[in-house]
Design brief:
The chain is mostly beta strands. The chain has one helix and five strands, in the order H-E-E-E-E-E. A five-stranded antiparallel sheet has the order 4-3-2-1-5. The chain is 13% helix and 42% strand. The protein has a domain at 22-70: SH3 type barrels (Roll), CATH 2.30.30.100.
Amino acid sequence: METSTIYSMGTALDRAQANGLAVEILVGGAWISGRVVATDGHGVVLETSEQEHAVARMEAINAVRVHSRAPVRRTVPAQQPWAM
């Protein structure tokens, strides 16, 4: 039996923070870039430069880009025509 994992935006941000990865978050139609310095399930703090940071509510984030390979890269086997 196979298992599935839900890879949510919160999971992506937590992973990015743990690994020091750069991210981009889409909030209100604008992409904000930086490194995750804090997240608590309600919001996220991105350090956008040495002199600036941004705070966003989790429910306001429409998408997350993590500058890293996807954590799970599996190939899906092709179905055999007779197995359908």
